Amino acid sequence: MMADLGKPMDLILWRHADAVDGIPDLQRELTPKGFKQAEQMAAWLNARIPDDVRILVSPALRAQQTAAALNRPFTTDKALSPEANAMALLLAAGWPDAGGTVMLIGHQPSFGRATMLLLAGVESDMSIKKSGVVWISNRVRQTTQQNVIRVLMSPDMV
Prior knowledge:
Blueprint: E1 9-15, H1 32-46, E2 54-57, H2 61-68, E3 75-76, H3 86-93, E4 100-106, H4 110-120, E5 133-141, E6 144-153
Parallel strand pairs: 1-4, 2-3, 2-4
Antiparallel strand pairs: 1-5, 5-6
Helix pairs in contact: 3-4
């Protein structure tokens, strides 16, 4: 399906920050290091994302805490749960036809697999560091749809 020429889309995948180990998995919270990572990456993102960004967040506590660092409204979406697959993420985001900017805050390995699917056309593993960001734009040039990587950022580079 071709994206509308007038509606380019940006997809931002933000992996949750560093979290404690343990169970139940959905109740794992951020470590002090994780809170610092989330705050630093949120400041970097807030300087660059538009005011009308749509933010969808995994129901896992560590993802909710990561999202809270943005101080922006967000929607919790079960489609971004830790066991989500790459296609579920893209469907939740409305990729590539929703237009505008959509940020997903969630988990590995689905974020890495979605990134590889968009960039290489094959769902395969790719590691994204905790609190790392992948920013991909979709555009149409002439009659060709293109996915363009804008940012691959890890928290230690902020």
